[in-house]
Structure formats: structure tokens, C-alpha cells
């Protein structure tokens, strides 16, 4: 099994890069695991309290469960991934059955902050876009897809997102084997990663 970690700030284009990489692979060859589904269960908090949570700090992620699931996949076991709701700011009661496959891609802003998970990755990738570009993308996406308004996105950006990015996320670039700049669509970098995967699978 080849395990690839793809980190980078919010709106840097991680999901887009994952989709481009997996386009060339057969469905039965690859699992994609998003760190977003592993946000801590906050059912004990009210909606008002959940909204105020700092979702850009490493403590907001249930890394114990993510490590356990990756280990189980490596051992050939099936896992049941949690499903997250950005509208409810919480895990839902649903899970997604995920079978072990030849390639497992884990993507998320904080995945390279955790030493145990870092050790499990065969390839570590950091996706980079400038912060103004990321904020513009985040604004558009959160308003269109995540039930947010302009004030909410800017409040979160100033209070937690930007400081957490500088303190925890950007420094993990040093752990990356490959850094992909995505201020524009980067087909060359995607081709290189696809070639590495095909080579390892051959
Ligand atoms: N290279 C790029 N150039 C322009 N827009 C992009 C690029 N990569 C991603 N986007 C757009 O930016 C938004 C956020 O991208 P996404 O891949 O979801 O980022 P992330 O998963 O890192 O938060 C999406 O609307 C996506 O279409
Ligand atoms: N309830 C939540 C949980 C997380 N966020 C934000 O999501 C960002 C990470 O997701 P990407 O797909 O953008 O990588 C992170 O920056 C959190 O601020 C949220 O807004 N609400």
C-alpha cells in the first residue's frame, strides 16, 4: 500500500490536486481520506459553542482515530470513516465504509503536524497558494457551499485561520517531499505525482 499525505492551507487547492491525481487511477485502486471528516465529535456542545470553535488548531482533529484507521487499512481491514457536516459544525451519525486499496491519499490542512501520521506517509506533498488567493477561494467556497456569510468567513480568518496557518500549517512545508505551487493550475506537478504512483504500482 502506498500512502500519500497532501497538506496545505485552506483554499490552496488540495482537493483539486487530489481529484486531478486520481483521474488517471481506477476507483478500485485508490482511497481518499479527508482530514475534515476527522474533526472532533462536538455533540456535547451547543450550536452556539460549536460555531466559536477554533477549527484550525491541531487539537480540533481526532488524530487518534485517523491514525487507528490508517493502521487498520494497512493491515488490510475495512474502516468506517466518520462523515462531517460543515453546516452543523459536527460529525453526523453517518459513516462511509472504506475498503483497503493499493493507494491511500490523505488530505488536510493539519495532517503534517502530527508526527505519528507523518511517519506513515510514503510521499508527503504540500500544496501552496498565496494567502490572498486562498482567502478569495475560501470566501467563494464557504458562501456557496458551506452555508457561511462574508462576516463569518472574515471573522474566522482573522481570529483563528490566519494565526493558526502561520503557527502550525505553513511550517509543515519543511516536511514535504514535493511542494506544488497552485496560484495557477499546475498540470506538470500533477503529472509527476501520477508518474510516481504508476511507477510504485507497477
Ligand atoms: N489552481 C487553481 N486555480 C484556481 N482556482 C483553484 C485552483 N485550485 C483550486 N481552485 C478553486 O479554489 C477553491 C478551493 O479549492 P480546493 O481544492 O477545495 O482547496 P482546499 O481543498 O485546499 O481547501 C475551489 O473552488 C477550486 O475550484
Ligand atoms: N465546522 C468547521 C470546520 C472547519 N472549518 C474550516 O475548514 C477549513 C479546512 O477545510 P479545507 O477544506 O478548507 O481544507 C479550516 O480552515 C477550518 O477553518 C470550518 O469553517 N467550519
TrEMBL record:
<dbReference type="InterPro" id="IPR000764">
    <property type="entry name" value="Uridine_kinase-like"/>
</dbReference>
<dbReference type="Pfam" id="PF00485">
    <property type="entry name" value="PRK"/>
</dbReference>
<protein>
    <recommendedName>
        <fullName>Uridine kinase</fullName>
        <ecNumber>2.7.1.48</ecNumber>
    </recommendedName>
</protein>
<comment type="pathway">
    <text>Pyrimidine metabolism; CTP biosynthesis via salvage pathway; CTP from cytidine: step 1/3.</text>
</comment>
<dbReference type="GO" id="GO:0005524">
    <property type="term" value="F:ATP binding"/>
</dbReference>
<dbReference type="GO" id="GO:0005737">
    <property type="term" value="C:cytoplasm"/>
</dbReference>
<dbReference type="GO" id="GO:0043771">
    <property type="term" value="F:cytidine kinase activity"/>
</dbReference>
<dbReference type="GO" id="GO:0004849">
    <property type="term" value="F:uridine kinase activity"/>
</dbReference>
<keyword id="KW-0418">Kinase</keyword>
<keyword id="KW-0547">Nucleotide-binding</keyword>
<keyword id="KW-0963">Cytoplasm</keyword>
<keyword id="KW-0808">Transferase</keyword>
<dbReference type="InterPro" id="IPR027417">
    <property type="entry name" value="P-loop_NTPase"/>
</dbReference>
<feature type="domain" description="Phosphoribulokinase/uridine kinase">
    <location>
        <begin position="3"/>
        <end position="188"/>
    </location>
</feature>
<dbReference type="GO" id="GO:0044211">
    <property type="term" value="P:CTP salvage"/>
</dbReference>
<comment type="similarity">
    <text>Belongs to the uridine kinase family.</text>
</comment>
<comment type="pathway">
    <text>Pyrimidine metabolism; UMP biosynthesis via salvage pathway; UMP from uridine: step 1/1.</text>
</comment>
<keyword id="KW-0067">ATP-binding</keyword>
<dbReference type="GO" id="GO:0044206">
    <property type="term" value="P:UMP salvage"/>
</dbReference>
<dbReference type="InterPro" id="IPR006083">
    <property type="entry name" value="PRK/URK"/>
</dbReference>
